[in-house]
Structure formats: structure tokens, C-alpha cells
């Protein structure tokens, strides 16, 4: 019984961590996309290769 409760608790902790990290990743991804759009609109296509290099590095 105790082992089962421990397993359930561990499962729940893992689920919370996975959900939180997924949400955080989604937030970061959205932020990165908006940042790239702002940068593109501000600096224009002239600096595109340099910007792509910075993004990939």
C-alpha cells in the first residue's frame, strides 16, 4: 500500500514537472518567434544572414 502511494506521488510529481516544462517551453518558443518578428521588422532583410547566424549559434 505504501509503495503504491509512493509510486502515485512520484507519477504526479513527474506529470507536474512535465506539464510545467512544456508550458514554459511553449512560452519561450512564442517569445522567440515574436522577438524574431520584431527584429525582422525593425532591421529589415539586409541583416538577415547575420541574424540567422546568431539564431543558429
Straight-line distance between termini = 51 Å
Strand content: under 5%
Count of domains: 1
For the secondary structure, the number of strands is: 0
Q: What's the helical proportion of residues?
A: over 70%
- Could you tell me the radius of gyration in angstroms? 20 Å
Helix vs. strand class? mainly alpha
Given the structure, what is the number of helices?
2
Please state the overall shape, judged from the principal axes of the Cα atoms. Answer: rod-shaped
Profile the largest sheet. Answer: none
**Quaternary:** single chain
Instruction: Flag low-confidence runs.
Output: none
Average of per-residue pLDDT values: 68
Run of helices and strands: HH
Question: What do these coordinates show?
Answer:
The chain is mostly helical and 57 residues long. The protein has one domain (2-56). 89% of the residues lie in helices and 0% in strands. It has two helices and no strands. The protein has helices at residues 2-43, 48-56.
Furnish the topology, listing elements before pairings.
Elements: H1 2-43, H2 48-56
Task: Record keyword descriptors for this entry.
rod-shaped, mainly alpha
